[in-house]
Amino acid sequence: MQTLTREEILAVYAAGPEAVVGLVEALLAQIARQDEQIAALAARVAVLEARLAKDSHNSSKPPASDGLAKRPKSLRVATGQKPGGQPGHPGATLRLAERPDHLVAHTPLACRGCGASLALVPVCHQERRQLHDLPPLRLVVTEHQAFAKTCPHCQTLTAAAFPAALTQPVQYGPGVKALAVYLQEYQLLPFARTHELLADLFGCSLSEGTLATAVSTAAARLAPVQEAIRAALTAAAVAQFDETGVRIGTRTQWLHQAGTERLTYYAVHPKRGKAAMAAIGILPAFTGTSVHDGWAAYAGYPCQHALCNAHHLRELTFVAEQTQQPWAGAMIALLLEIKAGVAVARDAGATQLTAAARADFAHRYAMLVTEGLAANPPPPPTGQRGRPKQSAAKNLLDRLDRQRGSVLAFMDDFAVPFDNNLAERDLRMVKVRQKISGCFRTEAGANAFCCLRGYISTLRKQGEHVLTALQTVFAGKPFLPQLQAE
Q: Domain span at residue 467?
């Protein structure tokens, strides 16, 4: 309704009471519609402001999304120590070698004062300095010659056999192939840069086809090892799970991770949820404690569950910043206090907290959840189908309330970690690989990456030398990492 002039209002008044009532009703209806629009716009503004307020310190957004202008506050607790190496840290200082490979003697021949000869004068003092450098880098070519001989008795011609791995007149050895795979799957270099590096350092110009063949060959030979890692994870007492999106060709698929402190397994699948988890086959047979971020698909499996409290800390930080509700900050402090208490008890040799400590922590946790639920009641019915949209604080509180056993699993079982950071670290290199090399061109390439990267990650967790292990793959006897359940 347009704004009425004074003359129009007087005309309505002159028309009598019914005309005035009709005008007032129309105005009230317009005000009601405007109130609804204002409420909808206010809700939309709140959602957009909340979205803008989120960064890596109060949500699951990656640090790379923060931009250069923002400097999010870290969730780490200050230790009061200065940056850098701490007292007692061994460091990595370059030291004199006890047995150098070469000795070069520098002896003065004449006195720098008077010029007299010092050739026959004995040494009275010696100082050592060492130069650590690379030897000349080049390929070592080994020629194998197979000779044949004719038996003088039966005249049979017998030829010596070449080594089983030597199948072509000219080929690259296990060292070159292992280094190529190491550069691509561990250092995450794309084909072109791997080709350039090998050419610059060793003068060997491996084509992209040769590099791709090396990767596929290594993956095929490591398939039994990958299956052994998968079986060991299925039998583990505690394992961490996560997933992230990857581009394969023109499609978005999902790379799933399962891991422990000593094992890593990757697999790609078009789906993110239960269809993928069933196809991978670890969770359907898993009977230990599954640590994850609360994604609904994980909850459908009958194993024990533990939720990632790093996610909870970020969500609680967001609630505390946006609502100023005291319970959120107090819950952050409580979770960190429990974490510190578990660490102290573990360092003292205990396997669990005392019953009194656990009861106290559980009681304080329940009180804070009750306080939060009182401050965030359920939204009123809207009259529309479906559940009314809840605030971020209410959604978080419902999870903390209904799944408190999974939230506090680390308190009851010291084998359960406080967070799911190990899984996130395992997935981080997948995202780095995408930033460097882009998408996977084929599913075969993605599957090969999963096999090789899972093997390499497992080796690194167990302190094994990656390049040496990859050489055993091309030598025909892949090194098998330790698979014992933890």
A: 210-303+439-474
Total of domains in the chain: 3
| DSSP category for residue 429 | H
Q: Is residue 61 part of a domain?
A: no
Q: Which two tokens stand for residue 254?
A: 């999902």
- Smallest CA-to-CA distance from 258 within 463, 478, 480, 450 is with 450
Would you call 207 exposed, middle or buried from its count of C-beta atoms within 10 A (0-12, 13-18, 19+)? exposed
Distances (CA, A) of 400 to 238, 311, 370: 21, 12, 10
Whether 298 and 313 map to the same domain: the answer is no
Rounded CA separation 233/235 (Å): 5
Residue 327 in domain:
yes
Mean pLDDT per block of 10 residues along the chain (486 residues) reads 77 82 83 84 77 70 65 63 73 85 93 92 92 91 95 94 91 94 94 93 90 96 97 96 93 95 96 94 96 93 95 93 93 96 94 94 97 92 80 93 96 95 93 86 94 97 96 94 78
Task: Indicate whether 285 and 233 sit together in one domain.
Answer: yes
Q: What is the pTM for the complete model shown?
A: 0.82
Q: DSSP letter string over 175-229?
A: HHHHHHHIIIIIS---HHHHHHHHHHHH-----HHHHHHHHHHHHHHHHHHHHHH
Judge whether 166 lies within some domain.
no
- Per-residue exposure over 4-34, b if at least 16 CB sit within 10 Å of its own CB, e if not: eeeeeeeeeeeeeeeeeeebeeeeeeeeeee
Q: Is 187 within a domain?
A: no
